[in-house]
Structure formats: C-alpha cells, structure tokens
Write a structure and sequence with these properties.
With 405 residues, the protein is α+β, with helices and mostly antiparallel strands. The protein is built from eleven helices and five strands. A hairpin with a 3-residue loop joins strand 2 (319-326) and strand 3.
C-alpha cells in the first residue's frame, strides 16, 4: 500500500470499511451469477441478492459484536443455500469474514466453539435442503472446510497478536529492570567515590590538625608550615567532592567547574598530601608503564588513596611503601605499612572496616582481586591485582616512559 493510501486509510477508517464491504458484496454477487450459470434450472436472483446484501451490511459491526454478526451471516448463508445456490467461497464471503473476525477478537475457546456450531449448522442445512447437483462434496464438505480454515486463520492471527503484546511487555520489563540495575550500580559507585574522597581528605586534615596541636609549642615554624598546607588539603577535598556530587546533576543543570576524575597521574599530589599529614610515602614503579583506561585508572587511584588513608588512620608506623608492578596482562598495586620497632601494631576494625570493603568492591568491578592483612614480619599490606587485558586491544604502549612519582 502506497503512502497516500495509508494516509487515507488512517484518516478515513469508516470510508475504507464501507469500500471493503461494497467490494465484498460485488464478490458475493459474482458467486450468485456463477451458480445461476451452472444450475440446471432457474434460480431466484433477487432473494439471493437481498440476503447477500444483508450479510455484507452486518459485517460493519463485526468488530464490536462479532458473535451476533457471525450468527446473522450464518443464517443468511444457509438461507441462500436453501435456495439451491452453490455455497462457493465467493458466495460464502460474508460468513467467512465474520468467522475470521470472531476467531480473531474472541477467546480461543469461544472462537472454536462458534466455528464448530456454524459448521454443524451449515452441514445440517446442506443435508436437509436440496443439494447442488446432488453432490455432498459441494453442499457439505466444501463449506465446512472453508469455515474451519477461516477459523484457524483467525485463531493463528490472534495468537500472533497476543505473542507480540506479551513480547513487548516482557521487553519493557527487561528495560525497566536493567535501568533499575544501572541506577543501583551508579549509586554504589557514587557512594564509594564519596566515601573515598571524604575519608581520605578528612583523615589528612585531622592528622594535620593533630600535628599542629603537638608542634605549636615545641616547633612553631613546623606547625605554621602544616597550617599553610591545610587549606590545600581542604580545597582538594572540596574539588573532588564537587566533581563526585556533580554526577548527580540533571542533564539540564550547568556542568561548569567539574573537575575530571583523578588517576595515577595524581599520585605525586597524593603522596605530597600524605607527607603533609606526617606520613612518608615511597613509590616504586616496576615493569614497563602503559596507559590505562579511564575506569581502570580511577580504580587504581582510589585503591591507593584508600590504602594510604587507612595507613594514616590506623597505621602503627609513619611510613608506607607503594609499589606499582606492570606486567603484560596485569597491574599489581602493593601498599605496605611496616610496624615501627617502638610501637605496637594497630588493632583492625570490625570486619576490616568500610575502606577494605570499598577496595575489594572496586577491584572486583574492574575484574581484579584485592587482599589485605597483616604480614608475618610485622605491619599491614594491601595487594590488589587489576587486569590490563580489558583495555582496547589489550596491548601495552612501550613508547611511554614510567612517570616519576
């Protein structure tokens, strides 16, 4: 159907329906003339035309009253058959359309019951009234087969429609479930970001404040130096907090002053901020450095940040060693806090604390592993392994040099 005809059908549905019924009456009238031409004796024409016209007119309500229309067309068809007309598919056109509409718009049991009842009535009328050329095939078998065929076609179309509706509903439920799952994952990711940012910078600020309180009387110059660095720590906390909270903005909100997510290129700043809090961090890079993807780079940075934060809060010693080991298919991050000879080991928090949980979740989200625990020779160690083969192509860029921490 061309675009113009489709537009006319959509804008004038009643006119289209009436045109179809007029065309169907023309087909039925052709069936009447064909039977008169083949009949051995004269047949009454006008009663057949009247009954056929009434049957075609009743089809106008086939969508709203399918069973009533089916009953009316069945009676008209049997009356035409009683006039000794041959019940061909042309002459039975109104009944076949009504049966198709009934099987399409009613439940399966109702559609098939109506088809069997109509078939039985047509068969009985073919046996009772004089048959065309005394042939049971023409008067009984042929009409019954066409009625059941139309019932089967209508039932098949109804099943296809129900399947399409069920499939669309299932697709909608799947999309909604996937959207909810993504929302939960995004909330968990933002929660981890907020925890890491707040815990790290507030821990450093608390450590700096404690150092100032301890040194303000004995070494005021050192205390003043730490105080001068304190605004840098709080400013960095505000920048990262604003960048993380910016993820919760609506699409219509202005995205101004949103800092990019940190990565391993910010490791020197992280080491410097730890030094301002009194924690001396040594960084060692092993293997051939390679660029990391955005997600993996952020994951590695947050794991190191959380590990150093835990050292600042719970570490027995004031030194930490960070080792980045690049292998062809993995990156291993190791953070070690050795126990000072004159200090007792710190007691771990219940269940390892939220920091260790956050590190494990981050490593698992990137397809890696994270292990944390006390060392046999003393101190605490965090070892995380992140796969590099998740990068595009899985290749390592050997033209870059290892960045100096």
């Amino acid at each position: 159907m061309s675009t113009s005809w489709r537009h006319r059908a959509a804008t004038h549905p009643k006119a289209l329906d009436l045109s179809v019924l007029v065309l169907l009456f023309a087909v039925t009238f052709t069936g009447l003339l064909l039977t008169r031409a083949l009949a051995s004796g004269p047949l009454a024409l006008w009663p057949g035309i009247t009954l056929s016209a009434l049957a075609c007119a009743a089809l106008y309500w086939r969508r709203s009253h399918p069973l009533t229309v089916l009953a009316g067309t069945a009676l008209s068809t049997m009356a035409v058959g009683a006039l000794d007309y041959l019940l061909t598919p042309l002459l039975m056109g109104p009944l076949l359309v009504a049966q198709y509409a009934t099987s399409l718009r009613t439940p399966r049991r109702t559609g098939w019951n109506s088809a069997l009842i109509v078939t039985g009535c047509v068969v009985v009328s073919g046996l009772v009234f004089p048959s065309f050329l005394d042939s049971l095939v023409f008067s009984v078998v042929n009409p019954a087969a066409w009625i059941l065929l139309c019932a089967a076609l209508g039932s098949y179309r109804r099943v296809r429609r129900e399947y399409a509706v069920a499939r669309a509903e299932y697709s909608d439920r799947q999309r909604e479930e996937e959207a909810r799952h993504r929302v939960v994952q995004e909330r968990m990711r933002i929660a981890r970001e907020l925890h890491d940012v707040v815990a790290h910078h507030l821990t450093l600020a608390d450590a700096q404040a404690g150092a100032v309180k301890h040194l303000v009387r004995t070494r005021p110059d050192k205390a003043q130096e730490i105080i001068d660095r304190l605004p840098e720590t709080t400013a960095a906390a505000l920048r990262e907090l604003k960048a993380t909270v910016g993820l919760l903005r609506e699409d219509t909100d202005p995205a101004d002053d949103l800092a990019p997510a940190p990565g391993l290129d910010r490791l020197p700043d992280l080491v410097e901020s730890c030094a301002a809090a009194g924690l001396q961090v040594t960084v060692t890079v092993e293997g051939q450095w390679c660029p990391l993807g955005h997600v993996l780079d952020l994951t590695a940075y947050r794991i190191l940040q959380e590990a150093l934060t835990n050292v600042t809060k719970h570490g027995a010693g004031r030194t930490a060693e960070v080792r980045l080991a690049y292998a062809p298919r993995r990156l291993t991050l190791t953070v070690t806090n050795a126990t000072a000879p004159d200090r007792a080991p710190a007691q771990p928090g219940p269940d390892g604390g939220f920091g260790l949980i956050s590190m494990r979740e981050r490593a698992a989200s990137a397809g890696g592993t994270c292990h944390a625990g006390h060392r046999t020779q003393g101190g605490f160690e965090v070892v995380c392994t992140l796969p590099l083969d998740t990068l595009p192509g899985g290749a390592i860029d050997s033209d870059h040099e290892s960045p100096a921490p």
